[in-house]
Design a protein that fits this description.
single chain, 5-stranded mixed β-sheet, Alpha-Beta Plaits, alpha+beta, about 120 residues, 4 helices
Length: about 120
């Protein structure tokens, strides 16, 4: 099971999912030991397949850091925080977390788009 290390210890994912917001983007940074990389990828793939079937899921993408150390960044887009909350707290998903290697450290955080004039839209 991965350890959870919040990006913002004052406002961890368990507090974030209680809010009403939408759409939201989950950003999750994973660190792990190199020998656990294949096990991590299998576990993440299983989780992603589960999430893809959930209401409100839009998309996901996994990125690997450049270099020798296996650091991964995943982001997933959801129609609303309520949809993400339902998937994240689903008993089937919670059971899948145990399949991650013990060296994995997950740092999930939810975000919303920000409008910046002449650059990006919200």
């Amino acid at each position: 099971m991965p350890q959870m290390r919040p990006l913002d210890p004052a406002f961890p994912i368990d507090r974030q999912i209680a809010l009403d917001a939408g759409p939201v983007v989950l950003v999750n940074l994973f660190t792990l030991d190199a020998e656990d990389e294949q096990n991590f990828l299998k576990s993440w793939q299983d989780d992603a397949a589960f999430m893809k079937r959930q209401p409100g899921f839009i998309s996901t993408q996994l990125h690997r850091a450049v270099g020798d150390n296996p650091t991964y960044l995943n982001y997933a887009v959801w129609e609303s925080n309520a949809h993400f909350r339902a998937a994240f707290t689903h008993p089937e998903f919670r059971a899948k977390i145990a399949d991650y290697p013990a060296s994995a450290v997950a740092s999930p955080h939810l975000f919303q788009k920000v409008a910046v004039p002449n650059i990006c839209v919200a």
